[in-house]
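Hi R.,

Quick one: here's the Nitrate transporter 1:2 isoform 2 sequence you asked about.
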Amino acid sequence: MEEAHQSNKWEGYVDWRNRPAMRGRHGGMLAASFVLAVEILENLAFLANASNLVLYLSKFMHYSLSSSANIVTSFMGTAFLLALLGGFLADAFFTTYRLYLTSAAIEFMGLLTLTVQAHIPSLKPPTCALASTEIPCQKVGGQKAALLFTGLYLVALGVGGIKGSLPPHGAEQFDETTPQGRKQRSSFFNYYVFCLSCGALIAVTFVVWIEDNKGWQWGFGIATATILISIPVFLLGSPIYRTKIPAGSPITTMFEVLAAAIYNNCKSKNPSKAVMGMEASPSDRTETSEGEESNTKAMVPSRTPTEDLKFLNKAIKRKPVKPMLDCTVKQVEEVKEVLKILPIFTCTIMLNCCLAQLSTFSVQQAATMNTKIGSLKVPPASLPIFPVIFMVILAPTYNHVIIPFARKVTKTEIGITHLQRIGTGLVLSIIAMAVAALVETKRKKVAVESGLLNSADSLPITFLWIALQYLFLGSADLFSLVGMMEFFFTEAPTSMRSLATSLSWASLAMGYYFSSVLISIVNNVTSSFRLTPWLSGSNLNHYHLERFYWLMCLLSSLNFFHYLFWANRYKYRTTSPC
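And here's the predicted structure, written out as tokens:
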């Protein structure tokens, strides 16, 4: 009877009260559905203000447009980079369950601070007429600026914790030892991106309209209420969640193995001193929790290290000179798994650089074009709605049409491997940049033919041409983000899955940072060969944006070949790439 009770437990998992999680009672798609509902609310709260923040900073805090753009870029980049901290804390010390609740409370405090500042006039700089020279605009400063940045970076810290804990918390609800569990987990990642897009859709339409027409205090207020509501919605799933027990700092293990490998390689010139066929220690025999053992025995040999990255095998010695450098086979193999996914991670940064460029320049392009659809005049700032709508439509189509068809054709469990998904995203981003270059060439041709090259008037060409590049970009984002999140989650060691999943967000942050650097480099190089740089001036018609897009297309193509080099050599840690 006791054995039957033990077999019903999810080894390595607990419920919300820290009691052993039970099979049939904890986990599954119902538990994950609460995570999906929370993601709609969480992303709505984050993007409701981030998407329109430049306007708030310039109009009400009286920063210049360039300063406002830099503040927003730094804010967004920091939020996504902090996902790495969130993932690390979830793996090492907190559970994903507790970290989400803590992070949501921090984001709530940040949004509440911003709401109060937007509502009380004395906490903002005095209003001024932007066109008036009699009343100069006073930029926010002192304690008021401190309040603004305290609110912003509390939000960034909360968002980082949520992004680092919520996706792995949902993915942990499925039994990866069964084909059904793995298929459900794959569907979860697809629908996570779908829900993320639904939250973004509401944010860039309804909440942005509220901010522009009813006041920013209402926009911040809606975001504050939304993140507050997400907490009880998340708590509703508490009785059925299963949560992975933190396994201690994975970073410490990585440094320990790397230090031991370097030390032993330097001290020992004789390869025979590295024990390759050593008797496994008790910790080596138990590679993962019992619930995952059948799925991972083929991944990590219990007695001898693999031949990949043989340099790290030197970290294993029967009698290490320094006890602190005593490493097990399991630890060495886990470090190898992490190092092998890093090249794939670096290849995704260029894709996110393309996303960053199109979210800025495309809006400026649309502002010079005819933005009417029938009698409806669409504000250029609403352009981000196009990729969001495409993702909302594509995500269910991908999950219910493309994947089942691919499974039938390939006769495999997954249909399309993670690396194929990421690769498809990279190809679509190349096409998106080529389309963007062609559309810009057409736009400038219309400007020349209409005699409006030096005019600020709208060009006689519909802004819907810009939607073409957003179609490919939205598709690229869907394929790559879903592929990245599932790839990093499944291929990383179980002790650092939250941290690995956070690499998806870190790639996004680095793409935004790299885009700023790339524009500066292009302008500096081109200004040395001609009087004006490619991307400078007040009139977009004088930019050489089409050349910049072709450059991005070329860089993306080179990056894709770089990706193929690593993807073709990658060996999945599972017996089948699931």
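The longest helix spans residues 179-213.

Cheers,
M.
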